Amino acid sequence: MRVGFIGLGNMGLGMASNLLAKGANLTVHNRSQNKVDELAAKGASRAGSIADLTTATDLVLICMATVDLSNQYLLGPDGVIENAREGQIIVDHATVDLVTSRRCAEAAAEKGALFLDAPISGGPLGAADGTLAIMVGGDEAAFRKASPELDKMGANVRYMGPSGAGTAMKLINQLLVAVNTAGAAEAFQLANSAHVDINAAAELLSVSWGGSTMVSRSAPITADRSFASSAAPIRNLVKDIGIITSLGKEAGLALPLSEAAEALINETHEIDPDYDIAGMLEALERRSE
Amino acid sequence: MRVGFIGLGNMGLGMASNLLAKGANLTVHNRSQNKVDELAAKGASRAGSIADLTTATDLVLICMATVDLSNQYLLGPDGVIENAREGQIIVDHATVDLVTSRRCAEAAAEKGALFLDAPISGGPLGAADGTLAIMVGGDEAAFRKASPELDKMGANVRYMGPSGAGTAMKLINQLLVAVNTAGAAEAFQLANSAHVDINAAAELLSVSWGGSTMVSRSAPITADRSFASSAAPIRNLVKDIGIITSLGKEAGLALPLSEAAEALINETHEIDPDYDIAGMLEALERRSE
Predict the structure, then answer these.
(1) What's chain B's Rg over C-alpha atoms?
(2) Are the beta carbons of A189 and A250 closer than 8 angstroms?
(3) CB A160 within 8 Å of CB A169
(4) Which of B207, B213, B248 sits opposite A156 (nearest CB)?
(5) Model ipTM?
(6) Residue B281's pLDDT is what?
(7) With an 8 Å Cβ cutoff, is B241 touching chain A?
(8) A55-112 per-position pLDDT tens digit
(9) For a designed S-S bond to B155, which of A24, B77, B131, B257 qualifies (C-beta 3.0 to 4.6 A apart)?
């Protein structure tokens, strides 16, 4: 199977590198050429345009940094779907809104192509290690065909359901990251006010009902107040929580905790866009003053 | 060490039974006599009054169902502290507010007695099995003296810090139970709207950043919509989240997610006080209609 990869950014470069290292027949395209050169040196073919890449491959993977870029590269003129053909499989790894995922699936279907929404979780480290979680929605037969290639990039590749289910699953995870991190910040603020050691609290919580992955992750960062610079900067969560609360409004779903978390996330972003998500504690403290 | 236990309710009966089964020299007191009879048949001594129990023992454990009863039995006329003596240790296992815990510690200190706030977590099953988490605040030497008896009732007995730290730790856990359960309800509502299977989502979340004990617990209950009757009824959380948000207001701590969870918890309680805490999903759905 000839595989194409578009978007060699923070995540895409690691993902494409793993495809190559595990033997994929890979063609790549990217706006800045130095990333293309890096992969070409390891054996990837180059495509000068999206049209060239799409025409030359059977499976097109794309991972753009913003919803606007995903829309442009997938749905725009000279984009992937305009150049797609019968039976071709197109996989979007970006976190976008449900409307975008479903619009891509419909546009692809008009060309006889198959679109999979397949957001990723695990960060740049997971992309580099090939241990990403990949949550896939769309045609199940297309998923089975694409799976051997997706498995080269991820440790937890899961079929979640029909078109949009992969995107929904990613949004579900991000909703919980946002709410559970905000909840942990409130809990740790209470711990500080009562002179309870945060790491001791987290240790007890890990065997109690209040435990969560975000409590365990935030505790040492919060105890040390090492919020500056992080692999999980608040600016990424600003984008995702915005998609989630917009979806809630469009779909008429009440999401009161997500909305409360969004306000806190935006306040943390105003302190420093590069702050760790656990830095929500500081936004809380500013409100409490 | 002569141990007294006051309050043989839902939790207290199991706790006192474990003390007896593990060889404690136990005296008990309770309003309804059938529970006293049950323990007396297994070897416990009876005390006709709180004064009698306090006078006859070295370590007094108490577990009442409401903050009012805790106040009355501990601080009221003819209560435990009025009858306490130099060096005696008094342990409150109820979940109360921080002011109550600190007031008890001060009143006990005036008698030369030592008060430990020691709320429990693990439910009636944990009480019966002797596997409770017990979070203890107060004098550390008194904690060490009481530990061998506390260990008979709990699998995770932890010293959390000075007076009030045990109560604060319990409130921290309950804050997270409330917020994480509400967040899980929002996430599962989103899953339902996008046709994502809830148990499949929970399985992926358990290896992703969005994972929590409450997501794992709520998922099967929510997938089956088996909210009626539960070991974790919403009425218990109504009491605890009220203590938490009141504390926030008194201490000037911003707790926006806890407040959003409180509204949802109260709406769930209006549906059915015996509903499982995962039934918050239904309160969300009523708002979304």
Answers:
(1) 20
(2) no
(3) yes
(4) B207
(5) 0.90
(6) 98
(7) no
(8) 999 999 999 999 999 999 999 999 999 999 999 999 999 999 999 999 999 999 999 9
(9) B131
Q: Rounded to the nearest 10 degrees, what angle do helices A234-251 and A256-271 cross at?
A: 150
* pLDDT at residue B122, as a whole number: 87
Whether the CB-CB separation of A116 and A90 falls below 8 Å is answered with yes
- Which listed CATH number (2.40.50.1070, 3.20.20.70, 3.40.50.12500, 1.10.1040.10) goes with A169-288? 1.10.1040.10
* Amino acid A230: pLDDT: 79
The stretch A236-247 carries a mean pLDDT of: 95
- Token pair 């577990």 is at which residue? B63
B2-162 to CATH, choices 3.10.150.10, 3.40.50.720, 3.30.43.10, 3.20.20.120: 3.40.50.720
Whether A17 contacts chain B with CB within 8 A = no
Is the Cβ pair B257, A179 closer than 8 Å? yes
* Average model confidence (pLDDT) across chain B: 96
Q: For residue A223, which residues of chain B lie inside 8 Å, CB to CB?
A: none
CB within 8 Å: B190 and A183: no
State the average pLDDT over residues A11-29: 97
Give how far B38 is from chain A: nearest CA, Å. Answer: 30
Which residues, in sequence order, are bridge partners of residue A59?
A3, A89
What are A109's two structure tokens? 């279907």
Domain boundaries, chain B: 2-162, 169-288
A233 contact partners, CB below 8 Å, separation of at least 6 = A273, A274, A275, A276, A277
If you count residue pairs, one on A and one on B, with CB atoms under 8 Å apart, how many are there? 247
Residue B211 to residue A209, Cβ atoms within 8 A: no
What are the two backbone dihedrals, phi and then psi, of residue B116, each rounded to the nearest 5 degrees? -115, 130
pLDDT tens digits along A199-230: 999 999 998 899 999 999 999 999 999 999 77
Torsion of CA A201, A206, A208, A210, to 10 degrees: 80
Distances (CA, A) of B77 to A221, B32, B48: 47, 20, 16
Task: Give the model's pLDDT for residue B6.
Answer: 98
Confirm if B189 and B288 have CB atoms less than 8 A apart. Answer: yes
Active site residue A249: no
Whether B260 has its CB under 8 Å from any CB of chain A: the answer is yes
**What integer pLDDT is reported at residue B229 of this predicted model?**
73
Query: Checking DSSP bridges between strand B120-121 and strand B59-62, what pairing results, if any?
Result: unpaired
Q: Are A180 and B212 in contact (CB under 8 A)?
A: yes
Taking alpha carbons only, the member of A75, A58, A74 closest to residue A6 is: A74
pLDDT tens per residue, range A23-59: 999 999 999 999 999 999 999 999 999 999 999 999 9
Report residue B104 as tokens: 């008890």
| Residues B119-131, mean pLDDT to the nearest whole number | 92
B210/A175 Cβ within 8 A: yes
Half-sphere exposure of residue A3, counting CA atoms within 13 Å on the CB side? 25
Contact partners, residue B204, CB within 8 Å, separation at least 6: A133, A135, A156, A158, A160, A169, A173
Q: Structure pTM? A: 0.90
Instruction: For residue A224, give the amino acid letter.
Output: D
For the record, the structure tokens of B125 come out as 């099953």
**Do A187 and B196 make contact, defined as CB atoms within 8 angstroms?**
no
Q: What is the pLDDT of residue A198?
A: 97
